[in-house]
Amino acid sequence: MDSVEIFRKKLRSIVDEQRGRQSQVADACGIGRNEMNDFLSGRKNFGIDRLERIADYLKISYAEMVRNGTAEAGPLPAAESANESMLKEIILNLTRQNSVLTKMVQDLHSQLSIASETKKGSWEPGSKNRRSGIDRRQAG
Predict the structure, then answer these.
(1) What is the spatial distance between Cα 16 and Cα 20, in angstroms, rounded to a whole number?
(2) 67 Cβ contact partners less than 8 Å away, ≥ 6 residues apart
(3) 10: closest CA among 40, 45, 53, 47?
(4) How many angstroms separate the CA atoms of 113 and 46, rounded?
(5) Which one of 1, 62, 99, 101 is most buried, counting C-beta atoms within 10 A?
(6) C-alpha triplet 109, 114, 120: angle, nearest 5°
(7) Per-block average pLDDT, block size 10, for the chain (140 residues)?
(8) Smallest Cα–Cα separation from 82: which of 58, 52, 113?
C-alpha cells in the first residue's frame, strides 16, 4: 500500500469516527467537497501540498498519517474556532489600516493648516493689490 493510500485510509477512518465531517475538513482546507469525496473513495489522488494541509488541519503530522498503523486524531476543530481565527486576523488588519488612515488624515489636516496660514499673507487671484487698491483683473 502506497503512502497516499495509507493517508486516504486513515483520513476515512478519522472522518467516519467524527460522524462524517468530511465537508468540514474539505471546507477548512480549501478543497471542494466533491473533490474530497472523490479522494476518500479512491477516484482521485491529491498532491503532497493538499495532504499536508489536511494533516495540519487535523493536527497530525503528515509522516504520522502515512505511517503504517493507526493515526490518533483528536476531535476535528470546531468550525467556530476556524472562523474566530479568521475574524481575529481580519480585525487586526482593519485596526492596522485604521491607524494608517488616521495618521494620513492627521497629516493632511496639518498640511491644510500650514497652507491656510501661508495663504493669509499672500496675494490670491481676484484680490486687490495691497498698495494701490486696484483689482489686478481690471488693471490689465
Answers:
(1) 5
(2) 6
(3) 40
(4) 61
(5) 62
(6) 125
(7) 86 80 88 92 91 90 78 53 68 78 86 75 56 56
(8) 58
Q: C-alpha grid cell for residue 7?
A: 493517508
Place of cell 478543497: 31
Strand partners, 36: none
Domain ranges of the chain: 3-76, 78-119
What gap in Å lies between CA 47 and CA 77, rounded to an integer? 23
Query: Would you call 128 helix, strand, or coil by DSSP?
Result: strand
Note the pTM of the prediction, 2 decimals. Answer: 0.49
Strand partners, 128: 135
The three cell numbers locating residue 34:
466533491
Report helix, strand or coil for 69. Answer: coil
Residue 131, all three cell numbers? 498698495
Residue 127 C-alpha cell reads as 484680490
3-76 sits in which CATH class? mainly alpha
Q: Which three cell numbers stand for residue 46?
A: 491529491
Q: What is the DSSP letter of 92?
A: H
